[in-house]
Batch of 4 targets.
Target 1
Amino acid sequence: MEKVSKKSLWIMGGTLSLVLGMLGLILPILPTTPFLLLAAYCYGRGSDRFLHWLMDRSWVGGYIRSYREGRGIPLKQKVLTILLLWLTIGFTIWSTGMIWWLKVVLCVVAAGVTLHLIKIKTWRPEPPVLIEFVSSIEPVETEP
């Protein structure tokens, strides 16, 4: 039997974390952010190629980069995440015949995730700077 290298274990851990993070996008009981950050960490230890692949993905790269650099999460993303979380939890509670204490657990988990998201720094990108026109250009007057 072949020996598995440490780098391979880091890559496998990163891949498992990425899968769990993606499942967290649709399952409210799994947190997405910690798993995606863990995937980036594992890939960083195991393979630069995998890390660059993850960071270059438009659907997650900017999100991880902003979080790792301490900028936080954009307000729009926070609001959308909390809205989808509560819609999913509400639909699950309403549509299934769960016992009452399981419904309470789901609400407590959703409240905890909501508080965590609210506590994370909100990233507000700088507004684009408008380029000033050269002052020597004068407007042309038109005749009536």
Target 2
Amino acid sequence: MDNVKLLGDRILVRPDPPEETTKSGIILAPGKEKRIYTGEVLAVGNGRYIVDGLGYRRQEIQVAVGDKIMFPRFTGVNMDRIAEATLILSQSDVLCKIEGEA
């Protein structure tokens, strides 16, 4: 990922593979995937500049490389040209950061 420089509040994510079976062993039909996805952050931008009453300031990215995040199903840009199965998301597309394993 050294050749990729993300701009603004962009985040490069490797989505986790979709689950094909439930925890109890039931096989899921194609197209019945969940609507919320998880993935690992591979790279982050520097943050975007916002204007407030004090002028311009940089809004920091709230996730770091290696963090596990959740994001909606139909979001981001597919970037298979950079690395296999990667997405570029905006920070506003991230729903939450997962702290521990469930």
Target 3
Amino acid sequence: MNRSILSRVRHSEADDSGAAAVEFALLLPLFAMLVFGMISAGFTFHSWLNSTHGAQESARFAATLSIQAGGGSTDSWLATVGERAFDASNLGTSTTARADSVVCVAIYAPGNKFPTTITPARRVIFTAAGDGGVAAAFANGTCPGMSPAAAGADYVQVSVSQPADFNFVLGSATIRVEGRSTSHYEAVALS
């Protein structure tokens, strides 16, 4: 009788030998999805940080750059700040930017108290194409999706948007990450 119990125990131990391999095979895809998802989320977060940093640095740069130092006209000043936004966001330059990147720079100066005439609300939107070219569209108004600051205040707005690829084992998705910043325009006119 003892031998039959002992033989049953030995057979049950031998039958469980492949269970670990089966469990590993079942859990490996889930583990891989989790690991690759975390890595991809890290890259997406890095893209968002670049966009936010670029918008903040460019808005601060714009807030202290006089219109004269930026080229003498509102449009050349906007182009100078836009170039800075591309560079600060690690998107390339305004002529060779990452495809589908969008940079908006706006200046709002209702008092028009500067020696060079500034259009009260002027913006430029740079849109990068897939071939590396960048289209610039100048218009009156503020950056889309950004609310105007306090009435009567002079300020600049910078918005940087770029696509971020989120890859995981079973597929991928492209999402847009965006950084926005508004700063009080405090540049002093050059004499």
Target 4
Amino acid sequence: MSVSPTILNGIEREVDDFQPRKRIKQLFQSEGEAAFKGEKLQEFCNKYIIDMNIVKRYVEHLQTLELNKDKRKTKRNENTCAEIMKNYKDLNWISHYENNSLAELKVKTLDKYLEENDMIAYLSLKKKDKVVAVSHHIAFGQLKRSLAVSSSDTMVISDGESESEADEEDVIINIAGIDDSSSASSEGEDG
């Protein structure tokens, strides 16, 4: 036999019949704060045997939650509109890439990048795949730029001669982050 009877005085009760906070929330969602004014508040308190101040505080809490919910919704809508209104050139794509915030961008914004860079084949992918494609494209572009800058810096010698192949290999080793001394010792071991 159940500890809490489901039938009282011949009437089957609901499972949460004597849970006042649940009832307050249901009534607040269906009728709003008007359900807790004057006699209605007193009837509710008598029915569920609960202090009126407790009910008032919980209703105020529910009102606060509703206000915060509305504020978040408004802010989210404003941010969405602002992001959609930006065009490709308004966004600092490299900054988003470096901060790992590409995934926070909307799909429409990622589509702007893909369209601008002639990556039309990626438009039909899911968002996470678009983020990967954009981040790979940005990373590849940065690598190409850094290689171009470093090779132009090292290719010019004071007397105007071009560098030998060994010197070009040193540049590639330096870009990869390998120490010159370790590469020199490995060359000595091979020879």
